[in-house]
Specification:
The structure holds 2 protein chains of 2 kinds. By secondary structure, chain A is an alpha/beta fold. Chain A has a single domain, classed as TIM Barrel, CATH 3.20.20.70. Chain A is built from 6 helices and 7 strands; from the N terminus they run E-E-E-H-E-E-H-E-H-E-H-H-H. Chain A is globular and about 45 Å long. The relative contact order of chain A is 0.19. Chain B is of the alpha+beta class. Chain B has 4 domains: about 5-110, 2-Layer Sandwich (Alpha-Beta Plaits), CATH 3.30.70; about 140-290, Sulfite Reductase Hemoprotein, domain 1, CATH 3.30.413.10; about 305-395, Sulfite Reductase Hemoprotein, domain 2 (Alpha-Beta Complex), CATH 3.90.480; about 410-555, Sulfite Reductase Hemoprotein, domain 1 (2-Layer Sandwich). Helix content of chain B is about 40%, strand content about 15%. Chain B has 19 helices and 21 strands. In chain B, a hairpin with a 5-residue loop joins strand 14 (about 370) and strand 15. In chain B, helix 10 (about 305-310) crosses helix 11 (about 315-325) and helix 14 crosses helix 16 (about 510-520). Chain B is globular and about 65 Å long. Chain B starts with 5 loop residues before the first helix and ends with a helix. The chains are: A alpha/beta, B alpha+beta. The interface of A and B includes residues 66, 97 and 99 of A.
């Protein structure tokens, strides 16, 4: 099992997406509301033509040290994707603010990691909108 | 000078609190050692050979007098009474206890400083020309732009777990004192034909085990496009950079393997998207930052006393000949304080010396100090009428060595005396070379000569761009020093060429002596520097003096 985490802390997976591999899109050209799993070496740009078919993208973090997922999520947002983006795998509480600022909606971690880094350690970063240089330097809200 | 606003202040305080909690969470097991490591690194804390080391950012090398005093206080309170100025304009403390680090970070925050992103696979402290805002040859002061980059890169959510470290340098002068061509991104401030300010953007430079001179990816980038363009470069690197081999993970390898044209296309495509996210707020912030860097109120005063003191005091004259640089304001000079006393550790200053330098900056230097990548301290604005008083005070503090740019003004990494990566000692070699040439009284005769020493292949001592570079290696448990010749870190950036087989610890100083004495014989006249002579004559005559027995064998 796994644990979903958002700004409210540890939550149950309300949307209950069914994630499929990206090649599902190629096999089902008319598919809609598809939720896909994306490996950390994927290119967000390869999905540019399919964004309207997607309800959610779940990006893998094989290791917390692999920061590609942050740029993939950011790129999806730049391409105009407004659906759900989830980070799954080895993401640590200290990265929660980075994930939210990069465009992720929530994080999915293993139960083992959730036991080691309980809810309060994640809630400590729920204030990810505070102390953010980026939001000061970019567009006015 | 920049001073923190409420946002900056709250940010560093929050960051100290976060790091304190991370230390506790490491101790209670919430964080594994693997997970804690990049978190401590992005807060400047290394684990060295004997102890932790805290690397404090001196953004673009600029310090106020109170900040320098606080660095002295930190050295006295939580370290052994000294600090080490580094080739990236930072200061390192070599002996902190882990439990004291949060208090040290709080003390830094008290004076608007931090240790954020001085290590780890992040965008590092942005470096700049140490003579910024003072140099006679400057187009524009690069520090406001460097400060903007500091704010943009600090805690950037996409770029805290890059494939590898990422270093940016900015220069506002045609004379490149910031080694921009040996950085992941080098920015040279230029003007286009219409006279508008902008940057020549260089990517993929770096030293280390695969030295490369950076390549120009954009001839002219309008000043206002700097942040979206840098963000485009780093985002392309973040997904394209190799993560399978840390020795091939720097952007120089990404550029080398993908080609500059592919990189440029990807960067320009990303830039087009990024540009839309910036609506000019950053430029308003830059305009505000620029006000912080307004020139001080320069004074006018009679300089005849200075000229008289130069005539009367040969030691003072010698110091003014080597340690001053041309200032843009009439009657002013830029003073370089040598942290390279013969026989001392290059870049090490005691807390007392830091205190003296802070006092001098306050009394005679409009309150400003700089750290150079050559590990010296600069008083950027000193009126010539005050130079003798400054010199006298420096002399009393053992800081008046007249050797800037000369053979004993050596860059050396900490080497095996401190560093866990080192394969050989660097500091003792630097000390012995400096002492030997001081003994020979030849330093001034030899003239401008940059020797740079690294204690391992990672090249923290910049040996590749030394006129004479020395690389210390481990050969079957024995130190072996390789010499490279003809390197330069300036606007004519060149990677030095290997001279030949290595020298043992006992042989290296005599080898350097042969080389330098050989140059004195080879040079056209006293005005031809070592580097100029090397470029004119090529390696052969220098190799002949380095390896005399080979030359004899060839002749036989």
């Amino acid at each position: 099992m796994s644990q979903i985490i958002n700004d409210l802390g540890f939550v149950t997976d309300a949307q209950a997406f069914t994630f499929v591999e990206p090649d599902h899109l190629a096999a089902n050209a008319d598919a809609a509301s598809v939720a896909i799993d994306l490996p950390s070496d994927a290119s967000a740009d390869d999905l540019a033509q399919n964004l309207s078919q997607l309800s959610a993208v779940r990006i893998d973090f094989p290791s917390f040290a692999d920061g590609r997922g942050f740029t993939i999520a950011k790129r999806l947002r730049e391409l105009g994707f407004t659906g759900h983006i989830r980070a799954r795998g080895h993401v640590i509480a200290d990265q929660y603010a980075m994930a939210r600022r990069s465009g992720f909606d929530d994080v999915e971690i293993s139960d083992d990691l959730a036991a080691r880094q309980p809810q309060d350690q994640w809630l400590a970063r729920a204030n990810w909108q505070a102390h953010d240089y980026q939001s000061r330097l970019k567009r006015r809200a | 000078m920049y001073s923190y606003n409420d946002f900056d202040e709250a940010f560093v305080r929050e960051r100290v609190a976060q790091f304190s909690a991370q230390v506790e969470r490491r101790i209670d097991g919430s964080l594994t050692e693997d997970e804690f490591k990049p978190l401590r690194l992005m807060n400047g804390l290394y684990l060295q050979l004997h102890a932790y080391m805290l690397r404090v950012a001196v953004p673009y090398g600029t310090l106020s007098a109170p900040q320098m005093r606080q660095l002295a206080y930190i050295a006295d309170t939580w370290d052994k009474g000294y600090g080490h100025f580094t080739t990236r304009q930072n200061i390192q403390y070599n002996w902190p206890e882990l439990k004291d680090v949060p208090a040290m970070l709080s003390a830094l925050a008290d004076v608007g400083m931090h240790a954020i992103q001085t290590s780890g696979n992040t965008i590092r402290n942005v470096t700049a020309d140490q003579f910024a805002g003072a140099a006679a040859d400057e187009i524009e002061d690069p520090r406001p732009v460097a400060e903007l980059l500091r704010q943009w890169s600090t805690d950037h959510p996409e770029f805290q777990f890059l494939p590898r470290k990422f270093k940016i340098a900015v220069t506002g002068s045609s004379t490149d004192r910031a080694v921009t061509k040996a950085h992941d991104i080098g920015l040279r401030m230029v003007r286009n034909d219409a006279g508008e300010p902008g940057f020549e953007v260089i990517i993929g430079g770096g030293l280390g085990r695969t030295p490369m001179v950076g390549k120009i990816v954009r001839d002219f980038l309008p000043k206002a496009d700097l942040l979206p363009y840098c963000e485009a470069i780093v985002s392309v690197y973040n997904v394209l950079g190799r993560r399978d081999n840390k020795y091939k993970a720097r952007i120089k390898i990404t550029v080398h393997e993908n080609g500059l044209d592919v990189m440029r296309d990807k960067i320009e495509a990303a830039f087009a998207e990024k540009k839309a996210q910036f609506d000019g707020v950053d430029q308003e912030m830059l305009a505000e930052i620029e006000q912080h860097f307004a020139a001080p109120a320069f004074k006018t005063a009679d300089t005849s006393g200075y000229e008289a003191a130069r005539l009367a005091n040969p030691a003072f004259r010698s110091w003014t000949d080597t340690n001053l640089a041309a200032h843009r304001a009439d009657g002013y000079s830029i003073v370089s304080i040598s942290i390279k006393k013969h026989g001392a550790t290059p870049g090490d200053a005691t807390s007392d010396q830091m205190g003296v330098m802070a006092d001098l900056a306050e009394k005679y230097g409009h309150g400003e100090l700089r750290i150079s990548h050559e590990q010296n301290v600069i008083l950027p604005h000193v009126h010539q009428s005050d130079l003798h008083a400054v010199y006298s005070a420096l002399r009393a503090a053992d800081l008046a060595t007249a050797n800037i740019g000369l053979i004993s003004d050596i860059i050396a990494c900490p080497g095996m005396d401190y560093c866990a990566l080192a394969t050989a000692r660097s500091i003792p070699v630097a000390q012995e070379i400096a002492e030997r040439f001081d003994e020979l009284k030849l330093e001034h005769e030899v003239g401008p000569l940059k020797i740079k020493i690294s204690g391992c292949i990672n090249a923290c001592g910049h040996h590749h761009v030394g006129h004479i570079g020395i690389l210390g290696l481990d050969r079957a448990g024995v130190e072996s020093y390789q010499i490279t010749l003809g390197g330069s870190g300036m606007e004519d950036a060149t990677i030095g060429e290997r001279a030949g087989r290595g020298f043992s610890a006992d042989e290296i100083v005599p080898a350097i002596e042969r080389l330098v004495l050989g140059y004195l014989d080879l040079r056209h006249d006293a005005d031809e520097t070592f580097l100029e002579a090397y470029r004119r004559l090529g390696a052969a005559p220098f190799k002949a003096v380095l390896y005399p027995s080979d030359a004899k064998a060839d002749a036989a």
